[in-house]
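Researcher: We plan to redesign the surface later, but first we want a full-length starting point. Tokens attached.
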């Protein structure tokens, strides 16, 4: 009888629902298991095959209600082949020296991490991490964890790094960071290095976490030949096209554009008439990604920031994302919008915050973003408050 209790029963836990960091106006919930006990290597490998990821000493996978947008994916190293684009990505960075080293949270790694997250993900929780939190992410691991470093052969400077776990059937890429101004798709190049490393040791898989349809930051993951997706409990080759059906016109999306009225006001926008105005000067990657998702015909609230902090009008996107001539470095773009109509009654940020229906509104959750999405439900409720036709 005693043998029945020699191993602690493993328990899974569900987290509370929180705002989704990838898809606006959605919530996120996870199924979590603590990584401890015997044969962690085997457990971690089996969990990875079941679509779990690791963070610190926990394994997790999405368990969101009414949403299955997160798809676990991996690259089959035996099926992978170099397409023309993959060869180009390899050539751009093949001079870098790659080496697996023990996890490190030294000043060099932390400085590179900070440059990366503050440039590419400035409004994410990662951008707020201090040195101690970064050290915990890198070192707090109960499994076989290493870092793939890519260094300049002449200066020996750290150019890119990938925290990854060794598994029985390959490697799991936990988190990558690199010089944000590097050219040649260095994020994808890191994956190519992992593929080559696994081929060398005869391991079949490189686990890349989750791919999310509609998330720009995840889009690169499905471009690798040999990529597989976990669907209905089985790993299957991921199709190059998600559906054989003809593409349908996407439904109208809704947004909110913030502006300082002293620099560009609703009156200024109205004067532009049908010509509209380019929404330039955005220098935040998440806000820029929101504009990349916009289509001609999408509508948005025109919001006066600073002291007013209120919705004052409705605009429409008349030209999709294109280069912003005010950006000398050529990194950011803009859309063009035209004024449609003023609201009947301005809606203040204070009113929105006091109304519990808007707790998940990006305007409330991400107050620093200058361009944010608005769900159709919230759009209609805000239009009702503003006494304007939705």
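Model: Full-length starting sequence:
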């Amino acid at each position: 009888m005693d043998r029945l209790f020699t191993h602690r029963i493993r328990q899974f836990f569900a987290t509370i629902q929180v705002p989704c960091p990838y898809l606006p106006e959605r919530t996120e919930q996870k199924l979590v298991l603590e990584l401890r006990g015997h044969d962690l290597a085997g457990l971690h490998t089996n969990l990875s095959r079941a679509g779990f990821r690791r963070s610190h000493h926990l394994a997790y996978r999405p368990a969101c209600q009414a949403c299955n947008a997160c798809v676990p994916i991996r690259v089959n190293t035996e099926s992978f082949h170099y397409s023309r684009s993959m060869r180009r990505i390899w050539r751009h960075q093949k001079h870098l020296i790659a080496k697996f080293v023990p996890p490190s949270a030294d000043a060099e790694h932390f400085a590179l991490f900070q440059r990366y997250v503050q440039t590419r993900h400035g409004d994410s929780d990662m951008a707020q991490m201090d040195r101690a939190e970064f050290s915990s992410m890198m070192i707090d691991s109960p499994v076989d964890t290493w870092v793939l470093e890519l260094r300049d052969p002449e200066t020996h400077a750290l150019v890119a790094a990938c925290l990854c776990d060794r598994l029985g059937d390959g490697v799991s890429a936990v988190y990558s960071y690199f010089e944000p101004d590097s050219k040649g798709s260095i994020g994808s190049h890191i994956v190519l290095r992992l593929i080559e490393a696994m081929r060398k040791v005869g391991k079949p898989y490189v686990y890349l976490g989750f791919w999310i349809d509609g998330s720009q930051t995840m889009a690169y993951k499905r471009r690798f030949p040999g990529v597989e997706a976990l669907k209905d409990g089985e790993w299957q080759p991921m199709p190059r096209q998600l559906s054989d059906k003809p593409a349908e016109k996407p439904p109208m999306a809704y947004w909110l554009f913030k502006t300082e009225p002293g620099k560009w006001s609703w009156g200024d926008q109205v004067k532009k008439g049908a010509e509209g105005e380019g929404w330039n000067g955005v220098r935040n990657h998440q806000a820029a990604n929101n504009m990349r998702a916009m289509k001609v015909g999408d509508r948005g609230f025109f919001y006066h920031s600073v002291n007013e902090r209120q919705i004052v009008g409705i605009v429409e996107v008349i030209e999709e994302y294109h280069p912003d001539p005010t950006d000398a470095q050529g990194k950011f773009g803009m859309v063009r919008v035209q004024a449609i109509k003023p609201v009947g009654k301005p809606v203040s940020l204070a009113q929105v915050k006091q109304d519990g229906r808007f707790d998940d509104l990006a305007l409330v959750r991400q107050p620093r973003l200058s361009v944010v999405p608005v769900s159709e439900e919230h759009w209609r409720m805000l239009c009702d408050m503003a006494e304007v036709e939705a």
